[in-house]
Amino acid sequence: MKYLLSLLWISLFTMLACSQQEVTEDEPLEPITFVQKETFTDTLQHENGVDAIHTGGPSDNNGIRLMWHSHPQAHEIEYYTIYRSNHPEGLSFYQQVAVKYPGGPNIADTVFIDDSDVDLNRKYFYYVTCTNEANVESVPSDTVWYTVIEKAQLIFPNSEAVIDSLPVWFQWARQDYPDQYILRIERFITETFHPLVYIKLIQSKYESPQTELVNDWKPTAQDNGMYRWRIDCVGRNKLYEGSESIWRTFTLNLK
Q: What residues contact 214, with CB distance under 8 A and at least 6 apart?
């Protein structure tokens, strides 16, 4: 009798567990949380958060980078869906722009770059959802927005330049003047490894071209080699308006 009762309890427990699992699979996952950009983000080796990005190729290529945190239920996610709206206040007209499959459970942040017809000086609003294996979509994430503004056109040093004395001066042009620029210099070790060596927030002189003499970067002959530089334009809304120029390389050859 005790044996039969034990079998009955085991069967009942198994049925309840299976039933609970089915209910759980039909429930939506927790919503995505975006990585928010902060005022110091552009001065870091690895830039985080929603931001403008140069997508390579022709100088007029524009892109907006989105980042969201790894999900606590990452192993249950089948795919992410990215939605975008260009409504002036982001209140409606959201359309799916991409589906992205997760790269693995150990990825700290998930990244998506929107380069699909991104126009200058236009607000784009985004939210992201995640869908589980039962094809149940989560509620939308928080909403973020960004506006890409005109890029700086780099003049000097160009890719053939060899710098053999200090200080180094940099020059770039832009038709419309932002309030601030960011000069970023990285050591070019390989195509995938280029550590940050210098960064400076520069107040606009409201002229084009703009020239900046860099007196506080003091490399020595031991630092000779190839470098790359870029100019970021900072819009009036510093966290949500900006652009990145293309990269230019130069060679340092100090005696």
A: 167, 168, 169, 170, 183, 198, 200
